[in-house]
Amino acid sequence: MNPQVFTYGETQVRTIIKNGEVWFIAKDVCSVLDIKNSRDALGRLDEDEKGVVLTDTLGGKQQMLCVNEAGLYNLVLRSRKPEAKQFKRWVTHEVLPTIRKTGGYVSNDEMFINTYLPFADEQTKMMFRGVLETVRRQNERIAAMKPKADYFDALVDRNLLTNFRDTAKELEVKERYFIEWLLDNKFVYRDQKGKLKPYAQYVPELFKLKEFARNGKADVQTLITPRGKETFRLLLKNQTA
């Protein structure tokens, strides 16, 4: 697996596309954030936030520790370097939100890249081409299996929303497996607090965000719509067929 490299300041950060998701080489991220011991820092992350990839280096193929988007955010939170805030803002406010909001609907990749990433180096552009293609394929799968609108409009009117646990029960799969499947297939992601949030292009069709109060504080819960439940049922069935 060949890493693709982009430059942040004077530091090169290697990235890998793994199962359609962008992973960051942990050592490079820790270098930007001035975290001295990358292995110790990764030891504090959850298992689904870190991994190992086999990459080509000057010394041959090597196994390297890496982190996904959620893992990267957790490392940012642990860094005391002033640079961490700027790095996090670049990742969270410019690059990833742009892909989430428009990546699945852009018909011309080059136009998208040239519009939103005009000053990026070629390796960075190659990385985003891969991400755009992954998002597009996912949306095509959903469109092909989209249930009849009239049936689901009637259910939505009855407000039959379910949480992740109850949806997993109805789909007859384990909750952990269902959540990992949603993460792997880029339907949801974990925010900086580790909460599951849907990607913007799937709201409100597959997910709805409901505000509620807990201990006097406002919070938001991600719920799955009837259309989302049936879409996931069909996708899971197709996956095991």
Strand and helix map with partners:
Elements: E1 4-8, E2 11-18, E3 21-25, H1 26-33, H2 38-42, E4 50-57, E5 60-67, H3 69-78, H4 83-102, H5 109-116, H6 122-144, H7 149-157, H8 164-171, H9 175-184, E6 188-190, E7 196-198, E8 207-214, E9 217-224, H10 226-240
Antiparallel strand pairs: 1-2, 2-3, 3-5, 4-5, 6-7, 8-9
Architecture overview:
There is one protein chain. The chain has 241 residues and is α+β, with helices and mostly antiparallel strands. Helices cover 48% and strands 23% of the residues. It has helices at 26-33, 38-42, 69-78, 83-102, 109-116, 122-144, 149-157, 164-171, 175-184, 226-240, and strands at residues 4-8, 11-18, 21-25, 50-57, 60-67, 188-190, 196-198, 207-214, 217-224. The strands form 3 sheets. Strands 1-2-3-5-4 form a 5-stranded antiparallel sheet. It has a two-stranded antiparallel ribbon with strand order 6-7. The protein has a two-stranded antiparallel ribbon with strand order 8-9. Strand 6 and strand 7 (196-198) form a beta hairpin.
